[in-house]
Amino acid sequence: MADVLAEAFASVCEAQNYAEPFLSYKNRAERIPLRFRTKKNLAYNADFTIGELRRALSTTKQTSPGPDGITYSMISHLSDDSLANVLYMFNRIWREHVFPAK
Question: Record's superkingdom (predicted)?
Fold first, then answer.
């Protein structure tokens, strides 16, 4: 299944599928290295917002829980304060690149 998805994405992302102005922009942008540990306030370094977390949760399906036993439904039904704490934890993991111990 992974190979089928990889082939599908690869075929869609081939350069021949893009207009020349986009290819020019893409080539320029790809020459700029991503700096995740910079002091600049770049969009990809910003903390996730409560709105982004809520939107992500609204698009999830009812799936089996992960190894921690927590389902998306459980997170979706948290109080605003509890959801803010979850968001704080996610943002801290994102900024510090360290996952909490079990």
Answer: Eukaryota
